[in-house]
Design the sequence.
């Protein structure tokens, strides 16, 4: 398993910006040959090699896929529903990374209702 360890550190730091009751419900799990960050057992974001993987609400997918540095997650050679990859150019700043983490958290929370 290989994934960007520096990006993992940045994601952990981004999670620290959430209230403690949110932070306490995150855990890391090895998935897809990389690592994923789960909120109450629901995947939010992850890292596969050097790409950020993000779960996105279906209602937002069309707009998100129009953004720079974003492409459908095609881990199985077909686009996966409500999954995207963001290349390193799309997560250069902490603000950019935080945006993607928040989108992933939004998706996870929607699955808990």
Sequence:
């Amino acid at each position: 398993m290989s994934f960007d360890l520096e990006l993992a550190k940045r994601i952990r730091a981004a999670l620290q910006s959430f209230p403690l009751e949110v932070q306490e419900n995150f855990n890391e799990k090895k998935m897809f040959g990389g690592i994923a960050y789960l909120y109450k057992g629901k995947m939010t974001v992850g890292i596969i090699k050097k790409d950020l993987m993000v779960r996105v609400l279906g209602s937002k997918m069309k707009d998100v896929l129009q953004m720079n540095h974003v492409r459908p997650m095609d881990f199985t050679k077909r686009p996966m529903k409500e999954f995207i990859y963001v290349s390193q150019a799309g997560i250069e700043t902490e603000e950019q990374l935080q945006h993607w983490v928040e989108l992933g958290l939004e998706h996870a929370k929607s699955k808990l209702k």
The helical segments are 5-15, 20-23, 61-65, 94-111. The chain has one domain: 5-111. The domain at 5-111 is CATH 3.30.1460.30 (Yope Regulator; Chain: A,).
